[in-house]
Amino acid sequence: MQVQDIMKFESLKKPVIADNGSLVAVEVAPDRGDSRTLVHSTTGKRQLSVAGASKPVVSADGRYVAMVLEPSLLEKETSDAKARKKLKDGMVLVEVATGKEQRFSRVKEFTFNDAGTVLAVWFEAEEDKKDKADDKAPDNASVAEAKPQTAEDNLKKPKVDKADKGSPLTLIALNSGKQLELQDITAYAFDKKGKSAAVLVNDVAQAKHQLLSVTLSDLSQQQKYSSESEQLGALAINHDGSHIAFSAGVAADKVDERQYRLGLVNDKGDVRFAMHPDAWVLNQYSQLSFSEDGERLYFGTVPEVSKVLSLQKFSDEASLYDTATIRDSRGLKLWHGDDPRIKPHEIKTYDKLKKQTLLAVWHLAGNQVVQLATPEVPEAKPIEYGRFVLGSSSEPYLKEITWAGFYSDFYLIDTLSGERTAVALRQPSNSEPNISPYGRYAAYFREGQVQLLNVASKQLRVLNANLDVPFADEDHDYPSDAPGYGFGPWLADESGLLVYDKYDIWQFAAADAKALKLTSGRDKGISYRVEGLYQDKNQAPATVNTSQSLLVKGYNERTKADGFYRVTLGKDGLKTLHAKEEKLSVLGRAKHADTLVFSRERYDRFPDLYSADVLEVDDARRLTELDAQRSKFGWGKAELVHWTNTDGKPLDGVLIKPAGYEAGKRYPVLVYFYRFMSDRLHAFPSMNINHRPNFAWYANQGYAIFLPDIRFEVGYPGNSSVQALTSGVQKLIEMGIAEPTAVGIQGHSWGGYQTAFAVTQTHIFAAAVTGAPVGNMTSAYSGIRHGTGLARQFQYETGQSRIGESLMQAPLKYVENSPVFYADRIKTPMMIMFGDKDDAVPWEQGVELYLAMRRAGKDVVLLQYEGEPHHLKQYGNKLDYSIRMKEYFDHYLKGAKAPAWLEQGEPYREYAKED
Questions:
Q1: Is the pLDDT at 224 greater than 80, yes or no?
Q2: How far apart are the first and last CA of the chain?
Q3: How far apart are the C-alpha atoms of 853 and 163, rounded to whole Å?
Q4: Per-residue b/e over 132-141, b at no fewer than 16 CB within 10 Å?
Q5: Which letter does DSSP use for residue 718 in this model?
Q6: Residue 264 pLDDT > 50, yes or no?
Q7: 8 Å CB contact between 415 and 805
Q8: pTM, two decimal places
Q9: Contact 237/198 with Cβ under 8 angstroms?
Q10: Cβ atoms 190, 171 nearer than 8 A
Q11: If 0-12 CB within 10 Å is exposed, 13-18 middle and 19+ buried, where does residue 666 land?
Q12: I need a surface site. Which of 378, 609, 713, 715 has the fewest CB within 10 A?
């Protein structure tokens, strides 16, 4: 196996399923190169492969598939920077039954309507004529030769903000082939019944702003609203097309300062505008959406539209000495101790907060507007739980983010009154309460308890109060409260809900907390979870009916294998549907059918796609055949390894034996790890060139790969890792697998830190490669995560680094867990990799580690990749790192000749930059 084989190896993206379950389309993508899209019937043998196509979208009835046509890799790589910017995506529409194609150029978006009868193709705006003229001008054209702009020219061509410009839209009736071409479109929307579409036309130059309704049966159009002075902004249409909502603001105003009003037009053409009781307005970021029944319109508001700030300018001699004008150009960011967010985080969130609007609702029948979200509780989504929506606020805890992590207060907000009912206060932000279908109950997990709140009575009940089974994460090894295992679906009538412990599914009655254990996984070591329910991301979570049979996936922690089972609500016990030594992944379910798509995989079997009825997965149809790619390569085999840690605790790991393994022969071993790795026993290796070693490549080249589990002790993450690593490697030596003098170790980020620390404490490793490691916890503690602007303190006190105390409270723990303080002990050659724009770990941490080892006279190499973030993005850099890593291990573990760069380094050079 060569790196070129990895580049060309094809993998599958997430499949897309027709609403009726008849068809699956999936992008097939090599690691480097052009994708293709595979289209497969779930009921027959019809199959298509469309070269160069990606990101498929399937019509509801499965008759058509539309796909993106990206410029080819060759086009991109052979174009200069200017030409590359002008490369635009196209689109191909395929009729599945005939294979007939229609291709379109310069397409920015395409969408089928919900009924699958019409396709909208939205094109890129035409290039600015000035840009085209510049392209045609000869290189030696002078400024004097250009025709000057006159005042009359400027009047004829008003300057239009890019956000206000429309572009062409074509609607294609799929049954007849008829097309409707529209110009200057800034927004469009389909109703859910397949009857109509709404379209906004904005042509500032012609002072034409129109709302059009298009009847999809014949593509006839009707004007519903027009204005010469108002730019039309947001758009929504209700489920049957009888009402269209839109926003409108004065076109002459700057986009950033424009206020919009909210309008509604019905199928008779009657127009009315909403009146907000608090005079709040809409802005350019306001979005609109109708409730499922069409009786309410949700929209985003702001108390006022902020004015755009501008610097004072020097205008005369006196202004040159005016202190206010001079200071206005200062480059200052003021950090105050009481700021809710530290400045880098404030800057990183500025754009998001600028675009944030606060949810309001317009009750159409009563013509009542109710503000739901407020600056105090700014987060709310238009997902309804009866008459309520769920709101949240992290505002009280913003300052604490720096050291304590993320918390929010959660509320149910009454859409009729705006009244808020507290559901859970100071709840971890990622532990959103589980709301019952009509908002009567809210379930959440806290401090080991599954709590259920009756919203109306405020009665709080602990569902697991009388059970002796833990519902908190039993493997939690962080200095924070253990979270729960999550919730399954609610019963549709709100009479109960499903809750998970580590192994089992429990059905709790909402009224009296009566518990029924539906599965018996604890004794078998199998964790069961409900799978295969259709979930629309814009709607409340799926519910189930009393006595309904459900698909359950079980993960066996002892064999690391998955199985599919059937369980029936209200009854304990389950039926095995499919259980083999493999990993199963549910990838999707059809919206209006029981068709399920899933993959089956092992380390030595590609995760091809299968389709089946959701409760008949044992009778699945195989859809793809990509496993054939492995046939020409020696691949190796994966097996489970058990051993006892130095503290007496049992640990698991995965051993991948090399291709052509011979019993009794010892091999070089590459150790790769992070935290829990043994669940990858049946996982097919990721066939990519990136910041990790490619397992299949190393196994093919005669390496054994070891993936050990790490279990941490709070306050001592470094030593916890060392104990697990050394005892695991010793197990491989005792098994006769590992050559004791040829064991290498590689990790990235948290794994990179553990790698760097491990070699300060043990000499069992012959070579180490560490990517983006923290070298010094004392300096990293008060560093910044540049990607988010967050301080790193919370990561050490409550998060992944697991110290559990502040630097001031436990300085010695920070020293004891920092590799730089033990650099003089290192005997293992080390290669450090960092991108110098790392957005998670300050890359100076790598410099500290490098300088400490250099000062101590140790064998060290630092790879600095320019402009790269935490994970390498540029393919040339990923390939370079992968090759150097392999050369590094080949030298130290297999005795290969050292490459020149390792023997003597590389001098700094400057390269010509592309214009």
A1: yes
A2: 37
A3: 53
A4: eeeeeeeeee
A5: H
A6: yes
A7: no
A8: 0.93
A9: yes
A10: no
A11: middle
A12: 713
Task: Of 729, 641, 668, give the one whose Cα is nearest residue 896.
Answer: 668
Tell me the β-bridge partners of 185. 167, 201
229 pLDDT higher than 90: yes
Specify the pLDDT at position 156.
Answer: 55
The CA-CA-CA angle for residues 699, 703, 707, to 5°, reads 80
Spatial CA neighbour of 55 closest among 30, 36, 74: 36
Burial of 62 (0-12, 13-18, 19+ CB in 10 A): buried
Q: What is the mean pLDDT of the chain?
A: 94
Helix, strand, or coil here: 517?
A: strand
Q: Are 548 and 518 in contact (CB under 8 A)?
A: no
- Is the predicted pLDDT of residue 192 greater than 60, yes or no? yes
Query: 183: how many CB neighbours lie within 10 A of its CB?
Result: 13
Q: What local confidence, expressed as pLDDT, does residue 309 receive? A: 83
Q: Which distant-in-sequence residues (6+ apart) come within 8 Å of 305 by Cβ?
A: 257, 258, 259, 281, 283
Q: How far apart are CA 137 and CA 337, in angstroms?
A: 56
Q: What is the pLDDT of residue 157?
A: 59
Asked if residues 234 and 219 have their Cβ atoms less than 8 Å apart, the reply is no
In this predicted model, what pLDDT tens digit does every residue of 114-169 receive, in sequence order?
999 999 999 999 876 655 545 454 444 433 344 445 545 544 556 788 899 999 99
H/E element, 568:
strand 562-568
pLDDT confidence bin for 356, thresholds 50/70/90: very high
Tokens encoding 293: 């029944």
Torsion 444-445-447-451 (CA) sign: positive
Q: What are residue 508's DSSP bridge partners? A: 497, 515
Indicate the burial class of 784 (C-beta count within 10 angstroms; 0-12, 13-18, 19 or more): middle
CA distance 766 to 893: 7
Residue 818 CA to its chain's centroid (Å)? 31
Give the model confidence (pLDDT) of 588-615 as tens digits: 999 999 999 999 999 999 999 999 999 9
> From CA 347, how far away is CA 29, in angstroms rounded?
36
- Weakest-pLDDT range from 218-232, 305-319, 706-720, 730-744: 305-319
The residues, any chain, with a CB within 8 Å of residue 16's CB and separated by 6 or more, are 24, 25, 26, 56, 57, 58, 588
Q: Given 3-state DSSP classes, what are the helix, strand and coil percentages for the chain, each rounded to the nearest 5? A: 20, 35, 45
Could you give the 3-state DSSP secondary structure of residue 336? coil
- Residue 126: its pLDDT value, please? 83
Contact 436, 494 (CB under 8 A): yes
- Locus of tokens 């013509």: 367
Give the pair of three-digit tokens for residue 421.
């009912």
- 508/510 Cα distance (integer angstroms): 6
- In 744-869, where does DSSP find H-type helix? 750-761, 777-780, 793-797, 811-816, 844-855
Contact assessment for residue 782 and residue 793, using Cβ atoms and an 8 Å cutoff: yes
What are the backbone angles phi and psi of residue 598, rounded to the nearest 5°? -145, 170
- For 830, the token pair is 């080390």
Q: Using CB atoms within 10 Å of the CB of residue 909, give its burial: 0 to 12 exposed, 13 to 18 middle, 19+ buried.
A: exposed
Residue 432, pLDDT > 90, answer yes
Which pLDDT does position 308 carry in this prediction? Answer: 82
What Cα–Cα distance (Å) separates residue 459 from each residue in 53, 193, 486? 55, 42, 21
Tell me the pLDDT tens digit for each residue of 205-214: 999 999 999 9
pLDDT recorded at residue 132: 53
Give percent of the chain above pLDDT 70: 96
Token couple for 453: 């709140």
DSSP 664: T
Based on the number of CB atoms within 10 Å of its own CB, is 456 exposed (0-12), middle (13-18) or buried (19 or more)?
exposed
